[in-house]
Automatic annotation (TrEMBL):
UniProt domain Histidine kinase/HSP90-like ATPase: residue ranges: 27-130
Keywords: ATP-binding, Kinase, Nucleotide-binding, Serine/threonine-protein kinase, Transferase
Recorded GO MF terms: ATP binding; protein serine/threonine kinase activity
Matching Gene3D superfamilies: Histidine kinase-like ATPase, C-terminal domain
This protein's name: ATP-binding protein
KW Disulfide bond (keyword) present: no
Span of the signal peptide: none
Matching InterPro entries: Anti-sigma-factor_SerPK, HATPase_C_sf, HATPase_dom
Length: 135
């Protein structure tokens, strides 16, 4: 477990087209703080996975939910929990694998990169928690 740095970060976004870029920046800064603590090593592959997961989740908010979203990052043991809350109450459904399908692969990608994926309806919307292994 990292010491000497915060193991939590969060931000709210308005669901604009630049929200995914801001979310990636938050993840990059968070991982940089963890690495700087010298108590926890995060491989480049794990950072890449976390950046791809947050991009997919926040992009889905921009495409499918009206209004803002909240992004929370938390270091839990050897994983980064990425939590995204938005105002769309319907839970996403993972489409059956189809290499010829031109889109709707985001949730498949997230599922493949995560140790655990939780989808839950919440008051005023839903929350998705993706646990990305960092080791």
């Amino acid at each position: 477990m990292a010491t000497g740095c915060s193991t939590y970060a969060g931000a709210a976004f308005e669901g604009r087209t630049d929200s995914a870029a801001h979310a990636r920046h938050l993840v990059s800064e968070f991982i940089a703080r963890i690495r700087a603590s010298a108590a926890f090593t995060v491989p480049a592959e794990a950072l890449g996975a976390a950046l791809l997961v947050v991009t997919e989740l926040v992009t889905n908010v921009v495409k499918h939910a009206a209004g803002p979203c909240v992004l929370e990052l938390e270091l839990t043991g050897d994983a980064l929990d990425i939590s995204v809350w938005d105002t769309e109450p319907a839970l996403p459904v993972m489409a059956a694998p189809d290499a010829l399908r031109p889109s709707r692969h985001g949730l498949e990608i997230v599922h493949a990169l995560c140790r655990d994926l939780t989808l839950e309806q919440r008051a005023g919307g839903k929350r998705i928690i993706a646990s990305v292994p960092l080791s």
